[in-house]
Amino acid sequence: MNSTEVLSHTDLSGPGGGGNPAQICLGCGTCASACPMTGIEGFDPRRIVRLGQLGRFEELGESSLAWLCTMCGRCQEGCPMDVRITDMIREARDLGGEKTVPQAIGKGIEMFMETGNNLGLPDEDFGFIVEDVAEELTEEPGFEDFVLPVDKEDARLLFTLHNKLVNTQNEDLKHWWKILHAAGESWTLPGSRWEGVNWGFFSGQDQVLKAGVDTIVGNMERLRSRGLMYPE
Amino acid sequence: MKEAARALVMGGGVSGLKAAMDLARAGCSVFLAEKQAVPAGLLLGLDRQFPSNHCGLCRVLPPDPSGRTWQACMRRGFGHPGIEFFPGFEVQDIQGSPGNMSATLIRQTLMVDSDKCNACMQCVEVCPVHMPDLFSTGQIPVKAISRAAPHRPPHHLAISLEACTLCGRCRDACREGAIDLDAAREEKVLDNLDFAVLASGVEYCLPEVYNLYQSAAHADVITTLDFEALLSSAGTDIMRPSDGRPVRRAAWVQCAGSRSLKLEADHCSGICCMISLKQASLAREKDIQCSIFYMDMRTSGRDWQKYLDRAREKGVELIRCRPHSIEQVPEEQILRIPHAPSPGNQQDRDFDLVVLSVGRDPAWKPPEYAGREGVFTSPGSRRVLDIARSIIAASATAATALGEDRQESLPDQEAKDQDQVHSRVLVVGAGPAGLSAALTLAAGNIPVVLVEQKDHLGGHGLSNISPEQRKEVQDLAARAMEHKLVQVYPSAAVISCTGPAGGFKSRIRDSSGDEKEILHGAAVLATGGRAAPVARQEDRTADIFEYSRRIFAAGNSGEAPESVIFILCHNTRQEPANYCSRVCCSLALKSCLQTLSLRPEAEVTVFYRDIMVQGDDEELYTRARSEGVRFIPYSPDAPPSLEAKDGKIRVKGSDPYLSEESEYEAEQLVLAPGVVPAAGSEMARIFNVHSSAEGFLCEADAKYRPVESGRAGIFICGLARNPVPFKEAVLEGRAAAMSALGLLKQGLDSRLQTFVRVKPALCSLCGLCLEACPFKARYAHEETGAMAVDPLACRGCGACVAVCPNKASAWSEQLEENVHELN
User: Fold this and answer.
1) How many angstroms separate the CA of residue A36 from the nearest CA in chain B?
2) A213 Cα to chain B: minimum distance (Å)
3) Going from the N-terminus, what domains does chain B have, and what CATH number goes with each?
4) Nearest-angstrom CA–CA distance, B662 and B193
5) Chain-centre distance of CA B202, in angstroms?
6) Interface pTM, i.e. ipTM
7) Cβ distance of A44 and B321 shorter than 8 Å
8) pTM: predicted TM-score of the whole model, two decimal places
9) Which residues of B touch A (CB under 8 A)?
């Protein structure tokens, strides 16, 4: 698998240059009806598409408008004209440059690029946390024989994580592991570069998005896993 | 002369009925196949039609001299002396070539023998097959064997063979032996057909097939066709399908299954906006809160904008937003529609019932034989048309079929005037509509006098931007000039028209002032239209007609401005010109595309109220957007403001999506002021027919007699009647000619067969009958002063019979019997 295959690009050439995918917008309002953010701080997908139609992507990226979107994709799924609205918002965010990226996301990305996870958690600490949770689990009836499969080769599923599961909500890990254990699933947890969250998707930075995907694909190749699981 | 042509008409809806009756009146032997047990097609379920909000299907019927079809409700049945009707049969295949075609008809609906049936309903009782019902949104459980139609007596039962499993239980249960299941496999073959007319319409979109708004999951999400059943006297009251509670709040969602690239449905069905407006207006009368969710309210035509205004006055709410989804709020038993009527403003609205406004099924295709030689397909069997346009299209298709059949088989032969009926027809105006009318009549051996104000024929057709359509008009003009039966009077005008249908006397005056009297049996008025004047005419301003001509003039080597702004509905679709002119939007879109094709970097901006393209012209709109034309909606309360400065045009307008007021500059401004009738109310005065406030000639019945004026023998078509694009003007011309032709043919045969006679010995010459007649069929004889009846104009309503104090106005003897029969 090549991670670049999963990326999609929006052609941003302006009016007259042809191919601006926002131009076909019908102004019908399906997106705005669907969007959970419509009306919040004046947000409306139609505004975004309109700015896109006019080629005003940078203005869009620099404004707070583009950053209100949660990237849920409901607008794009519903659009009768197949305008790739969320893709366009990603592009606009990217064009706005690093300075426009909200601090929390920007910081996480910086950490991820340096350490392989958004928290900047060293592998040692990660190992300590997950083993600790696993040990707690063995104290529960029915899970006495639970063994945490870390870096197990040829397992069916690679189990990546949302960083909050090793930060504030590590109790939640147990629920997942119980299910996997009870189902007799063949699975493994990567011992390093375990981050499943890809903030490059939200920041619009394709190189970060690619790095995130590469991390997962790299683990799958290294451990020869056939499937991927990302609990959220 | 060869024997009467044998014609097959496929489809017994309003189109098929009209085509069949027109062909029968023109002397053909007609076979009419309809897959249902009863005629009327979709109209069986449509009780009330705009603009009158009543049914008027029977008005499509001609006055038939035999007295057998007049004043009959066609939902109850159909009989016509010139038409062999095959209810329950669908055409499966057509073979052979024109003049020697054969058609195979297979049974789709099996009728129970109504002579034997005693309506005990045992058959319905035992039938194990339930099926969806055409008339009641599935609220009334229906079996495969059921009433043929709600309007039929209870002993008229029919079996839908689509649903029936031929299990035989109904036959076994019937004690009268009225059910013959062996006939289910019955086939009919019709041989020696000269031609066939396909008028079976289109299939409508079923929302569950396309998973539109999860309609299958919500019982209270229905279609406009279902809602008709709720409104219909044949259905139930307006109750929610889920729990039978009365509906208090209803929503209509437009464009369900259309105007979507996702569904591969880049088309507009053209009639759904009006249907929703009608349904909401009628629902308002039952005090239901009504909201219509729409994108463009396509009230395109002469009267529909006013109908929309009336709906608004009745309290119908219009919300410009296409909803994404319909949410069920279970604990409250309501349907919630989140929507954003203006940018940044999201609201929820709750409803008891949501009606999806559906049109043509995106996947629908006409049957394979539609394109075969000798099969004439009515435009209503390619796209969805409203009733009037279906009727016009069906008549025009019948005319075309007849014309082509005649050209091959009949010698040109001048018909002679018989008795007091003149077979000649006066056609006024030689544009696309008038020329089409003249040539259709001439093809039917009717001599034509064609009067044209200009010194040449062709009218606006000659400046059409499409080279194919220009050529078509030039050909029509050339054929009219050459045709033996068409006498052309160029540079002339009609100044008066007196007399009854069949015996009109008109005076025409040419440019030198010479006058001439013409005797004619009927007249077709096709005096056309012109661009409405534009008030401001700066250098860089053009109307849409001028601009489109200019930009298309040099083909692909012309020049285009670097920036152009279009303002559509300029001073129109509001009083005093409160109608949509139908031609401007598509002309503007074509001009936008041509501008960009000549100059790809051009900036093209369109200010619009509603884009009014219909049918597959929707593709023009989609293309214009995808090629970079910027569309900005405006409201008539706040139109964009204009000024000319430094050789540029400046337009101030607000872009609702950006909520910002902007100034747009362009080299060229194009305004679309719409069209007005060329002759205005002058034509109406000369011919004593009705006209609208704007001077458009009005028809006898907007739905069912669209090309007949209120005065018998005077037919109206094209732009003189209503704003129409080129192709429709041609169809209207042919349809008007077909009606004139039918009237004259029938008139010639009906000398001995009148509805009403006058007994001179009893008549006191009081003249009450003259006033009472709504059809202007009663007149005083020019020389003797005796009261007379114009048999061509008389429709047998009996008003004169009722009003006569001396019993001098009386039914014809034959009719008297019928009257007793009906009583």
Assistant:
1) 9
2) 29
3) 1-108+185-202+366-411 (3.50.50.60), 114-179 (3.30.70), 212-358 (3.50.50.60), 426-528+678-749 (3.50.50.60), 532-674 (3.50.50.60), 756-822 (3.30.70.20)
4) 65
5) 14
6) 0.85
7) no
8) 0.88
9) 259-263, 295, 320-325, 337-341, 343-346, 596, 600-603, 622, 625-628, 630-631, 633, 655, 657-659
